[in-house]
Amino acid sequence: MKEQNGKLSRDEFLSFVKAVLKKKSLEENKPLYFEYRLSENGEKEKFLNRFDAFAPEGFSEYRNSVIFEFIYSRTLKAEQIKKRIKGVTDTYRKSYDATIVFILNTEFQFEDSNSAVWDLSVINNWIEEYPTEYSHACSLGMERKTVASDKENIQLFEKLYSEGLYLKNNDSYTNAIRTCIKEQNGFAIVLGAGVSKEQGAKTWDELLKDFQKEIEEKHLLDDSKAVFEEVGGSSFTTAQLCKDIWASEKTFAWQIHKSLYDAARDLDMNTELGEIARLAQRCQKDQNFRILSYNYDDFLEQYLAFLDVKCCSIFTTKVRYSNGRDSADFYGMNGQPNQSLRLYHVHGFLPKVTTRDQLDMLHMRSICLTEADYNMLYNQPYSWPIASQLSFFRENTCLFIGCSLSDPNIRRLLEITAYNPPKHYAIFAMTYKSTDALGYTTTKQLTSKDRLQIENHFYRIGINILWVKDYSEIPAWLHDLNQVIV
Predict the structure, then answer these.
(1) pLDDT (tens digit, 9 = 90+) per residue, 329-369?
(2) Nearest alpha carbon to residue 101 among 41, 32, 169
(3) 42: exposed, middle or buried (C-beta count within 10 Å: 0-12, 13-18, 19+)?
(4) In angstroms, how far is CA 220 from the centroid of its own chain?
(5) How does pLDDT run across 375-392, given as a tens digit for each residue?
(6) How far apart are CA 388 and CA 342, in angstroms?
(7) What's residue 149's pLDDT?
(8) Hey, how many other C-beta atoms are within 10 angstroms of the C-beta on 358?
(9) Do the Cβ atoms of 428 and 454 come closer than 8 Å?
């Protein structure tokens, strides 16, 4: 175990160190910055890699400011390390009243009243204390490592697989989200189909099945199953074929509208969307707070209206949805910024209407559902929907709710904007449905080992996973989060 850290590549070492420092800062409830410097008057300013890390209010046993420097020393000799540490210490001592902590991946002793060295012995203690972060770091290597099968790590990963560890991680992540909201540091919510399904909307697959059923009942194809299989059978191609053979654009849009609203449930503030609306109400004082939705429906708008929260629903490059009272743009008629909450429908917006004739052409044409729609959207890197998603992922700390994160286009944007350590969070459930060869469906729970691999997978694209036993627990988690936000 002692030499394990020496086997890490430079990227793995840096990832592990950053992740542990971030976790410790959350546990101590003290700020930590990886991309900030101190200006001449001592204020924090964004500056890439001025310090490897900076803790303005102290860290661990140090009560004054702490500057961290990371030294990956696999190719460095002892004299080179000593010279580098002394040079950095002498430089920083002239300008900053702070303790300088050097973190190395080798055994090294150095004594100085203004600096400290955390060497391999400290790192190995961290591996024992933070096995999840260590596993995440190992998973980032270009060569796939099977660290769990290494005999030296059996004891470590037995500890990792303990049921209590995910709860500890959940607490840390929840605290990080809570702090981001309270300090108004650009928190954002990203919504997927899961939140609308709870309200009564059909899933994408259910919608496509309805399309196919309608095609069969109207005899628009002689053998619909054979045709759908022939054109590819994916959800995108199926949607494209349905639109190609449908009677009219309005009929196609009305079928989508029916799938969203025909079985809609009454508003209930104790549901997932109800708690999300309450969270949005609490966050609206933050000028950088906003919501991104991959859904077409206006369920969240209905909940926000119930809470009397003004909302500007944005669904195309130049056209904004207005309810007749609020400005239809970021700016009002007087030129002042629109104070309404901004809700981005990057895949289109189809608000509820009473009859098919009330469907608006702009809303119908905003819907991104078919293969052609997605190709057009994601082959235009400077389009508003792409720019909006990139802006969210770069500038905000996002909480993903109801998102499977399986769309390759969205994953590509996340990978482009990924931070290390990750700054985004997604809520996943441990339970899943399994169907055997006889067609019987049972509910199973992911093992700790499988959850770890899922965490490693999403860690690479900048996302920390918050686990709940079942998706039905999400409203309670959101309720608890709302209770501690004033």
Answers:
(1) 444 445 455 568 999 999 999 999 999 999 988 889 888 88
(2) 32
(3) exposed
(4) 42
(5) 888 888 778 889 899 999
(6) 12
(7) 46
(8) 10
(9) yes
pTM of the model: 0.84
**Residue at 153: amino acid letter:** N
CA atoms in the 13 A half-sphere facing the CB of 439: 0
Give residue 216's Cα distance to chain centre: 40
Tokens 């996340």 belong to which residue?
Answer: 414
**Chain segment 418-474, per-residue pLDDT in tens:** 988 899 999 999 988 878 777 788 888 888 888 888 999 999 999 999 999 999 999
Token pair, residue 170, equals 């959940």
Provide the residue type at 167 as one letter. L
The CA R_g of the chain, rounded to the nearest whole Å, is 26
What backbone phi and psi angles, to 5 degrees, belong to 306? -60, -35
Going along the chain from its start, the domains and CATH numbers come out as 4-160 (3.40.1350), 181-201+266-483 (3.40.50.1220), 204-261 (no CATH)
Question: Per-residue DSSP letters for 161-198?
Answer: T-THHHHHHHHHHHHHHHHHHHTTS-EEEEE-HHHHHH
Residue 114: CA atoms inside 13 Å, Cβ hemisphere, count?
14
- The larger pLDDT score, comparing residue 211 to residue 63, is at 63
Helical segments of 396-447, H only: 408-416
- The DSSP output letter for 267 is P
pLDDT of residue 96: 84
